[in-house]
# Entry
Amino acid sequence: MIVRAYEERDSDRLYEILSSSLDQSYKPEMFTYFHLQWPRGQLVVCDFSGRPIGFLCASKIDERHAKIMLFAVDKDYRSMGLGSKLLIALRQAAIMSGMDHISLEVRPSNMRAINFYKRHGFVATEILKQYYTDGDDAVSMHLIIN
# Structure
């Protein structure tokens, strides 16, 4: 399995993964938007045939801060270390861009994700009330990278 930069031709497959993995509604154009905003923060993990099976989209909030906006792995490929590969690649991209921290939000009910991020050094910093469109709260998490 390899991690590589996002390419425009990945959009349809990534949208399939996004739609089946996340409970918010997004438009397929999100991938192009994030790519234009910070190309280095758009990562795809592929199987051995080159087919995308996961992705991570991050935004450059400012010169020192990256934020994970979208992150999903195809359900048939979870628990294989692919999310960790994507997160490690993002950390390297952020360091190469001169950043010193990464943040994200996650639903409090998504303990699997929260524990995953904690294993990678993220710390929960606050609860954001009614963050999601359905009124659910979010846990804000941060990682300091040096």
In short: Residues 42 and 57 are 5 Å apart (CA to CA). The chain is about 30% helix and 35% strand. The two ends are 27 Å apart (CA to CA).
